[in-house]
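ping. complex inputs:
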Amino acid sequence: GSDGVTATGDASGCDTLPLKTAGQLTVATGEPAFLPWVGDDNPEGGDGFEAALVYALAAEMDVANVVWTRTGFDAAIAPGSKDYDFNIQQFSITEEREQVVDFSDGYYQVEQAIIGASDSAAASAASVDDLKELNLGAAIGTTSLDYIEENIQPDNDAAVFDDNVAAKSAFDAGQVDGIVFDLPTAYYITAVEITDASILGVLPREGSPEELGMLFEDGSPLVPCVNEALANLHNDGTIESLEDEWLNSGGSIPTLSN
Amino acid sequence: MTAKLELINVHKSFGTTHVLNGIDLAVDEHEVVCLIGPSGCGKSTILRCVDLLDTIDEGHILLDGYDVSAKGVNPDEVRRRMGIVFQSYNLFPHLSVLDNVTLGPRRAHGVDKDAAEAHAMTLLDRFGLADKAEDYPNRMSGGQNQRAAVVRALMSDPEVLLLDEVTSALDPELVGEVLSVIRELAGAGMTMVLATHEMGFARDVANKVAFLHEGRVLEVAPPAELFANPQAERTQQFLQRVTEAGRL
Amino acid sequence: MTAKLELINVHKSFGTTHVLNGIDLAVDEHEVVCLIGPSGCGKSTILRCVDLLDTIDEGHILLDGYDVSAKGVNPDEVRRRMGIVFQSYNLFPHLSVLDNVTLGPRRAHGVDKDAAEAHAMTLLDRFGLADKAEDYPNRMSGGQNQRAAVVRALMSDPEVLLLDEVTSALDPELVGEVLSVIRELAGAGMTMVLATHEMGFARDVANKVAFLHEGRVLEVAPPAELFANPQAERTQQFLQRVTEAGRL
Amino acid sequence: MAEQRRVDPDPLELNQPEVGRPPGIFAQEGFKSSLIAVVSTVVVFGGGALLIVNSPNWPKVRDQYFSGEDFRASWPKVLDGFWVNLELFAYSTISIAIVALVVAVMRSFRGAAFFPLRALATIYTDIFRGIPLILLILLIGFGLPALDIGGVPRSATFWGIVALTLSYSAYTAEIYRSGIDAVPESQRSSARALGLTQWQSLRFAILPQAVRNVVPALMNTVVSLQKDVALISILGVREAVREAQIYTARTFNYTSYVVATLLFLAISIPLTRVVDWYTARDRRLRSQAPV
Amino acid sequence: MAEQRRVDPDPLELNQPEVGRPPGIFAQEGFKSSLIAVVSTVVVFGGGALLIVNSPNWPKVRDQYFSGEDFRASWPKVLDGFWVNLELFAYSTISIAIVALVVAVMRSFRGAAFFPLRALATIYTDIFRGIPLILLILLIGFGLPALDIGGVPRSATFWGIVALTLSYSAYTAEIYRSGIDAVPESQRSSARALGLTQWQSLRFAILPQAVRNVVPALMNTVVSLQKDVALISILGVREAVREAQIYTARTFNYTSYVVATLLFLAISIPLTRVVDWYTARDRRLRSQAPV
Ligand SMILES: Nc1ncnc2c1ncn2[C@@H]1O[C@H](COP(=O)(O)OP(=O)(O)OP(=O)(O)O)[C@@H](O)[C@H]1O
Ligand SMILES: Nc1ncnc2c1ncn2[C@@H]1O[C@H](COP(=O)(O)OP(=O)(O)OP(=O)(O)O)[C@@H](O)[C@H]1O
Ligand SMILES: [Mg+2]
Ligand SMILES: [Mg+2]
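pong. complex structure:
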């Protein structure tokens, strides 16, 4: 998959975009799609960071028409050709995944945060070490889980849930003390879904930054074109203002020490 | 004197088939009563009803004068006092012969294993089955199965023994043995009701023979009388046909 | 002249039990042969082997001179030429009597439904089962079941009829009927092998009686001869016991 | 002779059969123990229910699982999905029944000549029963179309049904087999003795009895299939459970699952009752064995 | 009399029994049709396999499902998870067997007095069989602990086993029942005639035969339970399938599922074979009915 395509590469093939359906950008997202990434499970509305980004991208690439489809996680990562141009639902870019599919350049650098009951033992944690003896949880397919395993290394194996809903339910049932989410999701969850919990802290970044990218079928010729457009959106500050609008609305949260 | 076992106006239907049509029959203690009659006349059904395996629709079954067919009677208690051997023996296929015959005494009567097995071996030996004690029913011939079933019924020293054509699967050599065992039991005071197609057997062993026809007892008499001088026309017909078949 | 059916040195074991121990037996066309002997001597096993329901370990079974026990014989073809009635009748519980008896002709012989049913009704009528044609086996008495099983075997006009104690579940009234049917069949040229415990029956219907003991044919003779003047000591013993049991 | 014949017994002595019962014979043990069982069940379940309803967090839990509002909101979508379930269910039931029968029949043939057939059937059941259905659906539903072989359909629904059929037919074949094995050997002998071939014996004598033997087990499979059809949603098919999941993921409320469950029960319970009733009637008709 | 007795037949005439066979009697139909079946199976499967292996995308699909590297990489974690499966499996098998037996026995009691018991058992099987296992696990595993009732355990494992038991015991009870129903009525009569109570008749005469009748169906349940234990992962428990999922989600490579499948097969196939062997032996020992 990683056939040396880079964002700075010559994008001359992009004069006529190699789209699945000419004249329209077919984009897949999750089912359901949720805030802060997509507003109201309605990407057509353009609310939410990812939805807004796609529309900005389409404008940048001169495509008038955006058509949305939905896929589950499993269908997104299945082998074979796809019937959409790309899939955007907070996929983290990793080398292993690049063997199977192609990614665009990163459109967002993710930080991890831990949430827990405000009145619990976890609330007093000041460092990552303090988290070791907690029962932690994360949703499957997220880099939150990788973060727990690689950087926190808790005494008890972290519980792994199908989705944010299950993680929240386990929290309600008292089966986990803390859940790790990416920061934007954590903001949203504590504000709307688990109101008796709060973000206990942002987790310190380890190693190379984790980036979200759009997912393409292996060998898609569209990748350089999207990368070029993304670079332009970065340069003109569009992406930054979208981040401010949708993702950085939580005020200041302390970052835990190592 | 109260009869050991008495059936009074017993009726029984299966769905729309009226099988027993007002059976009246008394069996005194120490008495052997044979039920004879054409196929389907209800012999097996009577025995099943007496053992409370089928519930009767109407009438009474008295054991020692008590109405055991009444509501509220615990049928298990009644059955523990009787033994029955079925036409198609019905041994338990998953148990060895020894386990088959000791199951009743051990579980229903609380006899301990050793005592039950000792008793079983004596009886099995008497019926020529001592070497089959560890075998499974389905690996034995029909005759062997039927003998084991007789032993099973005798194991609990029943007050009344009900036998449903116990000799039909036996070879003639063994019929004599079974006959003598039954004679012995009768002498020792066993009360017995036998359904049988063997007129010779009935004549030989019975105190009374009851002729059944279409769910009714047409006549009851000592065998000498009944065979020599049948009263009902239907009885005469039946006995004549049987004689023709060379079975009397 | 070749025998219709011939067994030559037939051996058969179940596991370690040697059940047939070198059976030699010839049955001519139009002949009725009765197998007698104590329980477990192998009568049923012989009939099963002849019908190729059990494979023999050694020896040969010849039908019209052809070795049907040889490798490569299609047993279905052989079985279609024979009929068998089992000791425990084995009707199909999910089929009505009529369907039971027409199954063979319709499926194995390709007779059409109407013809098969007409034929069936004639036979059922002859055996007093006409009104039971639509009934299911488990709702009938043992006698009724056995009669239906006989009808089932007769349906395909078999060349050889094998009967395994067909009268043991019949009441004496009906034994006469079956006997006369068998006599009739014999007269019409039917070749038959019967395992039986009914000496009277054997005497009455057989051309030859074979006495079996421990998986061997001890002697074969016409019934008058064999019953009056048994050669082997074991035969004498057996017949004496049978006489004592009042069955001869 | 006359004094031996019974003539109308005095019915008066029967008027009080209860008097003087020997001890132990009369008892209503059945009724008593049944009563005890029911009362204790009611106490346990009723007590449990009370405890739940009075627990501090009950209102919260109730709202999350049994909220009237969410019930109404999720109902239309889940119901739409349920029609998809029924369609998939119908197709897979048919293909499973057929494949399972073939496999079971293959396994029940006798004789050395049929060894390869039996072995094949055995391998089939072992493998497809052992592979988790989820993997089978992933492998077949994503893997096969990904191969891009000409003429191979890409429809997720199609491949989902194929995967369900492979897995469930292995289970169902084993059920058929247990039914076949429970038919007494003597029935097979009888059928063969009539000159029927192995196949005819199976078809006319053994299978009808075998299927009757295993109706409850087959019902088990049907009920469980009805629910496992939902796994096809991995391939992107939006059936009832998937719709419920989507609703839950959006609202963090599980009531949509309860909606799906009620729809499933609305099919499975009447189906079970009808089959039970039919089985009981069949049994009454054919199988009341006089001993 | 002597001329009637058979003395050694001339064995020579038997040397060529093949000569002059009447037409139709001799055939090797069994062998021929078996051969055809096997050959055609091999052709179909072999052809299919060739088609797959030669398809344009095969190398990619192969790498995603059957990569040696990923096999090695995912093996340790999946194996760790598998021990959790086995533990959960062992506990639930025991509790399911017990509960199912109680329910089946309740349902098979006869007589009007036992009607409430039977009704209770029927409702139990209908409900718990009809509710999708996934919902049962969610409701019980998340719902009950969330109630915050004093003394009620919170452990996901514990409640997962409870949910599995409720669902599977309903299925298993139906299997037991089918086994019980397949035992001839006359066996029950015989047992009752010995003076055994209903319960004793069941215990000593009916159930042992019933269980033998349904061993294959029970094996089905065991094999499927072994896999459904994985559903407890909804509650966050990390068993083999969950570990495989984690690996796949991280790497987008499905080989970890194949690892999990092989582990499952490593248990289920030998188990099936042992049970088959035992059943066959048992049958040979006890049930070769001479007709
Ligand atoms: N469970 C049943 N359901 C319906 N009909 C039955 C049932 N049991 C018996 N019958 C019918 O009741 C009648 C009497 O049957 P029973 O077995 O008592 O006769 P029998 O005198 O013992 O006959 P046989 O001498 O042939 O054994 C028969 O016509 C039979 O078909
Ligand atoms: N399938 C089998 N497996 C093991 N042993 C068997 C089997 N069938 C028959 N036997 C044994 O073979 C012997 C002969 O049985 P068979 O049924 O042929 O006797 P039989 O002469 O018909 O006896 P009966 O007069 O009692 O019917 C018996 O000892 C029996 O236990
Ligand atoms: Mg009878
Ligand atoms: Mg026999």
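Chain D has eleven helices and no strands.
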